[in-house]
Indole-3-acetic acid-amido synthetase GH3.1 (Lactuca virosa), 595 residues
Amino acid sequence: MAVDAMCSPLGPPACEKDAKALQFIEEMTRNADAVQENVLAEILRRNAETEYLRLYNLGGATDRETFKSRIPMVTYEDLQPIIQRIADGDRSPILSAHPISEFLTSSGTSAGERKLMPTIREELDRRQLLYSLLMPVMNLYMPGLDKGKGLYFLFVKSETKTPGGLLARPVLTSYYKSDHFKTRAFDPYNVYTSPNEAILCPDSFQSMYSQMLCGLYEREQVLRLGAIFASGLLRAIRFLQLNWPELAHDIRTGTLNSKISDSDIRRCMTRVLRSDPDLADFIESECSKHNWERIITRMWPNTKYLEVIVTGAMAQYIPTLDYYSGGLPKVCTMYASSECYFGLNLNPMCKPSEVSYTIMPNMAYFEFLPHDSNSPTDATSDKLVDLVNVEVGKEYELVITTYAGLCRYRVGDILRVTGFHNSAPQFHFVRRNNVLLSIDSDKTDEAELQSAVENASKLLNEFKTSVVEYTSYADTKTIPGHYVIYWELLVKDSANFPKDEVLERCCLAMEESLNSVYRQGRVECNSIGPLEIRVVKNGTFEELMDYAISRGASINQYKVPRCVNFTPIMELLDSRVLSSHFSQSLPHWTPERRR
C-alpha cells in the first residue's frame, strides 16, 4: 500500500482507498501547470460555440495565449444580464454547452439579493471528488476515526425557482439533496450520528433538535464534532443550553417531543429512541450547572477535534470555541464557494492562524490578480498570474474559469501565498474583498452599511436629530452574534430627543436595508441576533481620531473606520455609550420566486 510522497510521520494511509486518493493528490499537484493547461483547453473546447465565447472570436482556439489576449476579466455585475436571461428561461447555450441544471445562490450579494451562480450537473461529481479526498488526509493525522462517529450539525436552507423554472439554492443544500449525499456508500471513516431525514428537514428547529438528540444518544461514540462555520457549532451549543430539559425528557421516556412534527423525522427516530434514565440523569446534571466551560468534552468525552471553518471572519469565534471545548483542535478541511470548489488543507491539525489550502488544479482554471491594499492599482486582465507562478508572501484576488461557463470571473476572495505542495501553491484565506461585517454567511460591505444608516436616520428627521458619525463591529460574544452600530447624534432640540421606541425602529430600519442573506439569517436560520444601536456621547469620534493620531495616524489622511475590532478602540467607544437599543421585530424576508 504505497503512496509516493503524501506520507505523514504518524503512519501510512489507513486503507487502499486512502492510498489511491493520496496518490491522486500527488499526481495533480506535481503536474499542476500541465493539468491547468488541459483544464482550460477542455473548457474552451466544449464551450466554443456558446454565445459568450463567440463574442470574443476565439475561432476554436484553446490555448492560453489566445484566451488571455481576448477574454476579459469580469465581475458578477458584468454577467448579471446574461445570468438573468438563463434564469428567465433561455435554454440556448449562452455560457455553457452543457445545460444549466440549477443556480447556486452565493452568500455574496448584488443589489441586496443573493448572486445566482449557474452550474451544470457534472459539477456535483467534481465536488464529490474533493470531498472524497478529505478523510484520507485526515486519517494520516488522526488514526482510529473508523472506531466512532461524527456529530455534524448540517442543514438545508430554503430554495426557490427562477421564472424559467430552475432551482436556486445554496450549494450545500444542493449537495445534501443530491444522490451523491443521500445514497452515499458506507464509509467506516465517515459515519454521521445524524440521519439524512434530520439533515434534510427544512425546519431549522426540528432539524437541530433531532440531530442533537441523536448526538446525545451516541455521546460515547462521537469522535469529532462539526458544522460548516464556527458560528454554526456555537449555535448548536446555545440550542443545547435552551433545550436540554426537553431533550433529557425524551431520552428518559424514549419518546419524541411533540414539537417535532416532520413525518420523515418521526419515522426515522423510531430507530433511535429508547428509554435511558441514566443518560437523562447525566444530561440534567451537567447542563443544569452554571459553568459550561468544556461542555463539549463533558457531553462528548471522546471528541478528538472540531471540524469547522475558523478562517477569515470566522476567526472571531475561536476564543468561544476554546472555552466550550477546552481547546480541542479546530480543523478546517477544505476551501470552497458557490462558484467552485477550490482545494483542501493538507495539514488539517495545524493552528487556525496557520491554515493553508492547496489548490487542486483539476477543479477549474485558476488565475490570480495581485492585490496590495496599500497601493491599489487598476485591476486589468494583463496583470493576472497563472496558478504555478504566484509568489510566496504576496496577496492575490482569486479569478476562475469554470466548466459551467464562468470566464475569468473575480470571486472576491483575497488570498496570501504561504508555500507550495509540489508545484501547486498553498494559500491562506485573508478575507473577502470589501466585506465590513460578517456574523455567519452574511457579508455586509461599507456601501451597504452606509445606505442602511442613511435610511434609518430618516426616522430622526422629525426630531431635528441626525447621525453625525458612526462605526460598527460584529459582536460574537452573544450567541447568535449580532451587528453593533455606534451612533453619535446631533440633537438640535434637546427637549425633543428621540425616544427609545424611535431608536428601536431605527434598528429595524437598518435591518430592512441590509441584504437578503442577512435577513434570512435573522428570520429563517436564527443565525444572527437583533441589530443593536449604541448611542455615544458627543465628541466620542473626535476622541477616536485623537487616539489614532497618538498612534501615528496622519491628521490629514485620517478617516473614521466604519468597522472596528481593536480592543482599546472598542473599550473607548463602550465607555462613552449613553444608551443601547435593539430591533424588536424581525425584518422582512421570504424565499420569494427569483425575478
